[in-house]
């Protein structure tokens, strides 16, 4: 575990724990999402401010959980990336994710509608490799998207660490992702964003959130950040990324970007 992760583990260990079982009533599979981008030093200040207002999810005795994800897109046109780049709705993403602490893997389809609400459906799969090599989960994929695996290719993978917080009222979840690492299956290029922190507020409707005044206090502002799209931008020089150039400049004001991004 890196020094950075150890420092964050100490800060989040002060918060009272909440188990995966207790989290079951806060899935928020039909929700509104608001993302914020900051850096590790500001995150440390935020983890002090949330004391008394939030629980920290604990898995296998840890408050920080490693994740691995692989995204798929259209064989020819990268239509999911392009739809996101153009800002069109509705749009969707297809991914497989492994929760490394528990060893559980899921194939997931996320759809965002014209009203800004996100719907996520998922099905358990043996592993990411079972999806990539054996086509696991194809019935679910076809039902949810109309695609088969022959229509899609794996494009970008990532690894990151996540802290998950739950407010005392159990009405929202806050995911905090850091130590982002990307791999592009088409270009074989890797990239890292060790200083970037992606905070996502997930809640049903617009219930009062205790985190918002804390974010304002630290001048952490809403900012779009798709791990799939940003991962594509920093690992594939062949794909047009006009809309994301401005996004990357804004992100670079808050945290360090990979060289050449």
Describe this entry's structure for a reader.
The protein is α+β, with helices and mostly antiparallel strands. It has a single domain (18-252), classed as mRNA Triphosphatase Cet1, Chain A (Alpha-Beta Barrel), CATH 3.20.100.30. The protein contains eight helices and ten strands. It has helices at 3-12, 40-49, 79-85, 128-134, 138-145, 211-217, 227-235, 242-252; strands at 17-18, 30-39, 54-57, 65-74, 91-99, 104-112, 117-125, 152-167, 172-184, 190-203. It has an eight-stranded antiparallel barrel, surrounded by five helices. Strand 6 (104-112) and strand 7 form a beta hairpin. Helix 1 packs parallel to helix 2 (40-49). The longest helix is centred in the C-terminal third of the chain and has 11 residues, at 242-252. The radius of gyration is 18 Å and the shape is globular. It starts with a helix and ends in a 9-residue tail after the last helix. The model has no long low-confidence stretch (mean pLDDT 89).
Give a summary of the structure in a few sentences.
With 261 residues, the chain is an alpha+beta fold.
Features:
261 residues, alpha+beta, eight-stranded antiparallel β-barrel, 10 strands
């Amino acid at each position: 575990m890196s020094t950075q992760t150890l420092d964050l583990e100490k800060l989040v260990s002060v918060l009272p724990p909440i188990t995966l079982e207790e989290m079951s009533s806060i899935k928020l599979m039909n929700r509104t999402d608001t993302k914020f981008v900051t850096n590790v030093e500001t995150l440390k200040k935020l983890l002090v401010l949330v004391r008394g207002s939030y629980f920290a999810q604990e898995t296998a005795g840890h408050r920080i959980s490693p994740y691995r994800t692989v995204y798929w897109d259209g064989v020819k046109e990268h239509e999911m990336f392009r739809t996101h780049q153009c800002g069109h709705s509705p749009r969707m993403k297809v991914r497989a994710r492994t929760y490394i602490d528990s060893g559980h893997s899921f194939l997931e389809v996320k759809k965002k509608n014209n009203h800004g609400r996100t719907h996520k459906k998922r099905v358990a799969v043996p592993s990411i490799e079972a999806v990539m090599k054996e086509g696991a989960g194809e019935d679910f994929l076809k039902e949810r998207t109309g695609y088969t695996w022959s229509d899609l290719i794996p494009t970008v993978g990532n690894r990151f660490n996540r802290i998950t917080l739950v407010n005392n009222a159990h009405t929202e979840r806050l995911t905090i992702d850091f130590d982002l690492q990307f791999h592009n299956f088409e270009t074989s290029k890797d990239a890292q964003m060790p200083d970037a922190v992606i905070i996502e507020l997930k809640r049903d409707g617009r219930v009062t959130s205790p985190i918002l005044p804390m974010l304002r206090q630290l001048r952490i502002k809403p900012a779009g950040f798709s791990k799939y799209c940003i991962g594509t931008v920093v690992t594939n020089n062949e794909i047009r990324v006009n809309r994301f150039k401005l996004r990357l400049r804004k992100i670079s004001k808050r945290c360090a970007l990979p060289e050449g991004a």
